[in-house]
Each structure stands twice: as C-alpha cells, then as structure tokens.
Amino acid sequence: MPLLTTPFAELDLIRQPEQSDEPLQAFDAADEYLLNHVAEQGLTLQTRMLILNDSFGALATSLAPHAAVFSSTDSFLGVQALEKNLVRNGQAFDAVPVIPASEPLTGPFDWVLIRVPKTLALLEEQLIRLQGQLAPGAKVVAAGMVKHLPRSAGELMEEYIGPVQASLAVKKARLLFCTPQSKTFQPSPFPTRYTLDEPKIELINHANVFCRDGLDIGTRAFLPHLPKNLGAARVADLGCGNGVLAIASALANPDAHYTLVDESFMAVQSAQENWQLALGEREAVIRAGDGLAGQEPDSLDVVLCNPPFHQQQVVGDFLAWRMFQQARSALVTGGALYIVGNRHLGYHSKLARLFRGVEQVAATPKFVILKARK
C-alpha cells in the first residue's frame, strides 16, 4: 500500500477492520491537502488541536508529534485504527486522547480540523458542541473529496461558527476555511424522538443514528417476525443502532438476556437511553465494539441483525459478511442468526456458506427475513 507522505511524516497506515489484500487505502487526497495546509501555517507543541472524524487516524498520527492533538469520532473502528496506526508508526497507542462523539468537547482549541462526515446531522451536532470551545483566533478548516462535499456542509459551518471560504480543488479534494465569529448560542435539535405503535415505545435518536427521524423500512419489515418463546436465551443485537430490535424482542421475552453492540458511540448512547426508557433497570450489556469480535465463542443462542451495506462512503457487503462470520463464531451449535436484508443482496447464498441451514422466515417486495442455524 502507498505511504502517506506529508511535511509532517511518512506513514504506513491501515484501515479497520483489516482485510487481506485490502483494496482501499487508509487516507485520501483530502487528508494530504489538509496536512499540507497545516504545515504551511506552522504548529508548536503547545498548539491545542481538535480533529473530527479522522476515519483511520491519518491526520492524528501525522500531527501527534507536533502539537497537543485530540481526536473525536463516532466510530469504534476509527479509534481502533488510530491506536494501531500510532503504534505502527512508532508512537504510543494512547498518544492522542480520544473523545467519543457522544461526549462533550473540552476546549479551548487553537485549531479544529474536520473531515466532513457522510451524515450531516453529525457535523451539525459537532459544530454546535464547538460553540464556546474555540480559543481567540482559532483556525477551523474542513476537508473532503469534492464528490462527497455538499454545499450544505459549508452552510452549517457558517450558521454555527462563521464565514466560510472554499479553496480551489486539488486532486479532487477541497478545503473549507471557516473564520469563527461571536454568535448567539444555538441549542441542538438532537436527539430526535419518534414513537412506534407496535411495540408501543418511544425512541431517542442521537445525531449519527441511522434513520434518526423514523423507523427504517428494513427494521419495520423485521419487527413482526422476531423470534418468540426464547425463554432464558442469550440474545445479541448486532449493529444495534437505537436498540429497537433488542428492545422489541426483550419486551416479548421477559426472561431472555441481551447484549447490544454497535460501532457508533451515538448509537450505543441512544440504545442505552431507549433500553432504560422501555425496560427500566432490566439488565443488559450495551457497548461500543467491533461487532461481536470480543464475544466469547459459543456464548449466544440468538443473534438479531439488520446489517449495514456501506462503511462511510464505500458501498459493499464486506461488513455484513464479517458480521455473519462473527455471529457464527459466537453462537452455540443449534443457535440461530436472524437477519433482514434487501432481496437483491443475495444474503441467502452467503449465509448458506457459513451455516448448516438457512430458511426464509418472511418476505416483502423489497426485503427478506432469513434464519440461519449453526
């Protein structure tokens, strides 16, 4: 793989989760453009710098030896990548303090570098949290590949921080320079809330939660077909989002034991709040993680999953396939994975390569609900 070469360092970087023969690199031209700009401006070791949405740690690993760098992300995999890339390039794994996106920022910051995220609601929430956290004369610069940089990103920066000037494009990347101004404090529109009819529950959704304004149609198709009569089964909601699958299942299975896991810190925060709202003090394990990578083998009876079909801007079934493999490892013999997926994704044949038996539980014109038994 190519090295990231900038005035700060020459780095060997990896993505997370790792793949053999990885087809994609862990940085892009927007990272290079941003780092070259910072190098022109100059830094000192006393410069307090906040980096937002640094996908695999390319920015923080480059800058950590040159400033007091803090990284904030909503991705557990992003944290994992940063730690591995720091060590891979001769630095301590904890050289850069990490602030999960679900937690408040603690300024003041002299520099803020932003990789514009796919979900603009996340960007909006991050900009709102920057209010009052910028040092006098702070520099705020956002970056993205032109094809992934909507005009509304600059508009949000202008609304919450100050005027924005766009750079010329270099290697199909662009920078947005934002000049902070004194503004009236604006409250956040997040979290959002909506109510389900069946089961009758209210759901809280923080800014980066998938389908935060209403139930996605895949989950809507899945809910009526969740397994019943589970007794004291050990159940995981893999990629739990706001926790709706586990909560609906738990309401129907009062003796079952639940683990909810997602790689988004804001999803986990939403799931924790929703679980408490619907189920009070009933015990559950709710955590951020790399799917079921940390789960003991043969420790689950049932896994529920509405798998993602993209990682940031990259579309594909790599993450879903990995989740299926994790589920198979974590399930006991005879245990079952239940999933919902778009018909055209062909999950039936993929699951048949891993599991003893795969059956279709239900179908709609767009989705299939499948049960795969180990």
UniProtKB/TrEMBL annotation:
PROSITE patterns referenced in this protein's UniProt entry, alphabetically: N6_MTASE
Species name: Pseudomonas abietaniphila
Keywords noted in UniProt: Cytoplasm, Methyltransferase, rRNA processing, S-adenosyl-L-methionine, Transferase
Protein name: Ribosomal RNA large subunit methyltransferase G
InterPro entries, per the entry: DNA_methylase_N6_adenine_CS, RLMG, RlmG_N, RsmC/RlmG, SAM-dependent_MTases_sf, Small_mtfrase_dom
Domain Methyltransferase small: 201-371
RlmG N-terminal domain mapped to chain residues: 1-181
Localization per Swiss-Prot or TrEMBL: Cytoplasm
CC annotations in GO: cytoplasm
Catalytic activity, as annotated: guanosine(1835) in 23S rRNA + S-adenosyl-L-methionine = N(2)-methylguanosine(1835) in 23S rRNA + S-adenosyl-L-homocysteine + H(+)
